[in-house]
């Protein structure tokens, strides 16, 4: 017996859901080949379909069941307690049937308790049925219950279609069917796809606006939109996910931000592991994985930087690496629509997971890791160093004031005779002016008093290019040496590490400062090579890897869904995007609109105004949907008896729409005249008659 991809049963006409379901299956890369992608049980046959192993649901790899309380509860909605009692009894029977079907088929089932109709449904009966079913499957991993189409729910005026419900028992609008399909497939995705156990997040530009190393713990901003990101992460912790920090910063600065914001919904006690330092983030993530005793394929990494995301994808292809939008509100929305972060069911053990890992961490030897040399080689880094002009004064002053981590001398002043600004860009975008040096000539030495670089460009070899530029400049001028001023501060360890790797001699001056002196030729020849951490990340000798591997679970698809397919309207637009229709010459505006509707409903575009609806594959359900669209767009109702004919063509239906519009307009005009006459006195009416007769 052939398996069906997705089986659907409903207490109402649910076939309009089919197009949206097939769209999502294609979006997720789930193709049925010879199998049926989506199949519907007979109309209003929910219980028989659940209890028959040979039914559509019994043969499905996954099942969606949609019910309305008013279709299941025979009691008059106004019957008070009797109606509520019947809702309880129906819920008990439905829960038993769902368990039987899920157990017998071995397939996940999603039950959607759909909203009642405004005309006939009882909100109280609906609420009782929904709450009873939610409780019945609270911790069930085979059956999951949805009581809304969140987060795709359209506005309340865009849910129900009274005309289509009355005409063909199609109770909802296209928008709401699209929302229901998205919510149902999303829940099935959570039930059937391995869920990540760890959410690792960047700090600067992700948890707060600003750079803590440059702005200080008091200078970063956590506004209302950014706070929503924290709330989303708090929900992840509450659901049992391990939350880790992975940031290029000084750890004490990051800890201080937490200390100064006790109102945050996530505290340091909620962090399972932290890697705040200057290693490549792929190295940090591997270290965290080893600490937690988890595979990298159970990690999601969130960062706003495209470069950092690409580096992690290259160094840790097992990790699902997602780039968050830079805008805080968009980033929060991204997290709400990030399907891999969903959990179908949460147990008490899940909720205790962070505490358990904090108390019982098991360390394993880190797996072999690929080198990052290829990544840096393909970054297409462009470092443009030019003399500073008047147009750079404001930015240069800002860099000197705010740069802490990579500021060799810790200076806030620029005293050199010459100043150079460093503009950086790569294949991901333009960083702008991120570096600054100043220099003066003393004898045979080019002395550099200021050498600083924003941490957002740190670790990519920009600092090496800056030094090589100074070395080349010294050689051009016949100078023998380059001397870099250094003074250790609380925050400039990255600068100290950079100097320590150079072939330099140290000449102390003053109590706390020193000159790091290099031969001009050595300075000019400095190049970036992976540091010790990156070298440790290299795999066994002879191994190689792709520099741009695709992330697991299709990170590009995850990002597309989380940024573009976030509401019913955009989902409908995406569904219709592939249905192109050639403009037919001579077609009237109404005919063109009819042809567009048919193309969207039938997946076949009419070639002329003489094409017939049923000749193009139309059937009674599509006819109801078309009539509902005509009513919504043109404000007229087309009766079945004028449409249900074999000669039902584009031209004829357009003519029927125009005639209906004209008739409705005449009726409105007549009603307006009668209203006007009703407001006149007898004398005014006599005067009008006299004027007409005269």
UniProtKB/TrEMBL annotation:
Q: Which Pfam families match?
A: PP-binding
Q: Which domain of life is it from?
A: Bacteria
Q: Where is the signal peptide?
A: none
Protein name per the record: HAD-IIIC family phosphatase
Write out the ranges of the annotated region (Disordered): 532-552
Where would I find the Carrier domain in this sequence? Answer: 585-661
Low complexity composition-biased segments = 532-545
């Amino acid at each position: 017996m052939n398996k069906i991809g997705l089986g659907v049963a409903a207490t109402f006409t649910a076939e309009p859901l089919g197009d949206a379901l097939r769209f999502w299956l294609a979006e997720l890369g789930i193709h049925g080949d010879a199998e049926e992608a989506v199949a519907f049980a007979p109309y209003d046959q929910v219980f028989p379909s659940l209890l028959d192993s040979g039914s559509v649901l019994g043969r499905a790899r996954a099942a969606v069941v949609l019910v309305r309380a008013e279709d299941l509860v025979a009691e008059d909605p106004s019957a008070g307690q009797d109606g509520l009692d019947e809702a309880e009894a129906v819920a008990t029977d439905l829960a038993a049937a769902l368990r039987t079907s899920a157990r017998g088929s071995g397939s996940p089932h999603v039950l959607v308790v759909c909203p009642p109709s405004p005309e006939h449904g009882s909100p109280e009966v609906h609420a009782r049925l929904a709450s009873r079913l939610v409780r019945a499957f609270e911790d069930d991993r085979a059956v999951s219950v949805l009581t809304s189409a969140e987060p795709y729910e359209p506005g309340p005026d865009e849910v129900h279609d009274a005309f289509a419900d009355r005409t063909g028992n199609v109770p909802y609008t296209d928008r709401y069917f699209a929302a229901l399909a998205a919510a149902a497939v999303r829940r099935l995705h959570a039930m059937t796809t391995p869920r990540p156990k760890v959410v690792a997040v960047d700090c600067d530009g992700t948890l707060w606006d600003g750079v803590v190393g440059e702005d200080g713990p008091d200078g970063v901003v956590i506004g209302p939109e950014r706070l929503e990101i924290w709330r989303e992460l708090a929900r992840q912790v509450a659901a049992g996910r391990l939350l880790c920090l992975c940031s290029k910063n000084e750890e004490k600065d990051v800890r201080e931000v937490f200390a100064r914001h006790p109102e945050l919904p996530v505290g340091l006690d909620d962090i399972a592991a932290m890697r705040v330092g200057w290693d490549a983030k792929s190295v940090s993530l591997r270290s965290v994985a080893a600490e937690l005793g988890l595979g990298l394929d159970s990690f999601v990494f969130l960062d706003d930087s495209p470069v950092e995301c690409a580096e992690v994808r290259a160094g840790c292809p097992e990790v699902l690496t997602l780039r968050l939008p830079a805008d805080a509100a968009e980033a929060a929305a991204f997290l709400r629509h990030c399907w891999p972060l969903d959990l179908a069911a949460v147990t008490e053990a899940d909720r205790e997971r962070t505490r358990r890992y904090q108390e019982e961490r098991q360390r394993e030897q880190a797996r072999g890791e690929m080198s990052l040399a290829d990544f840096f080689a393909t970054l297409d880094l462009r470092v443009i160093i030019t003399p500073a002009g008047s147009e750079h004064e404001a930015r240069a002053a800002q860099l000197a004031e705010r740069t802490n981590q990579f500021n060799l001398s810790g200076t806030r002043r620029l005293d050199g005779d010459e100043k150079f600004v460093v503009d950086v860009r790569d294949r991901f975008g333009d960083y702008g002016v991120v570096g600054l040096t100043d220099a003066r000539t003393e004898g045979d030495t080019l002395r550099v008093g200021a050498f600083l670089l924003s941490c957002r460009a740190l670790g990519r070899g920009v600092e090496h290019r800056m030094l090589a530029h100074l070395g080349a400049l010294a050689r051009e001028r016949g100078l023998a040496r380059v001397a870099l001023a250094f003074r250790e501060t609380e925050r400039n360890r990255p600068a100290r590490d950079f100097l320590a790797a150079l072939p330099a001699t140290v000449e102390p001056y003053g109590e706390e400062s020193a000159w790091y002196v290099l031969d001009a030729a050595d300075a000019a020849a400095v190049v970036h090579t992976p540091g010790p951490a990156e070298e440790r990340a290299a795999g066994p000798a002879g191994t190689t890897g792709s520099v741009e591997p695709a992330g697991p679970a299709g990170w590009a698809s995850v990002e597309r869904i989380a940024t573009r397919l976030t509401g019913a309207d955009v989902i409908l637009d995406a569904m219709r995007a592939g249905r192109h229709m050639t403009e037919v010459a001579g077609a009237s505006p109404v005919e063109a609109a009819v042809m567009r509707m048919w193309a969207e409903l039938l997946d076949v575009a009419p070639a002329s105004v003489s094409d017939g609806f049923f000749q193009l594959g139309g059937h009674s359900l599509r006819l109801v949907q078309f009539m509902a669209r005509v009513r919504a767009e043109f404000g007229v109702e087309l009766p079945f008896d004028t449409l249900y004919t074999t000669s039902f063509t584009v031209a004829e239906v357009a003519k029927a729409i125009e005639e209906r519009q004209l008739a409705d307009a005449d009726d409105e005009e007549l009603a307006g005249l009668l209203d006007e006459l009703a407001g006149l006195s007898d004398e005014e009416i006599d005067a009008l008659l006299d004027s007409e007769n005269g």
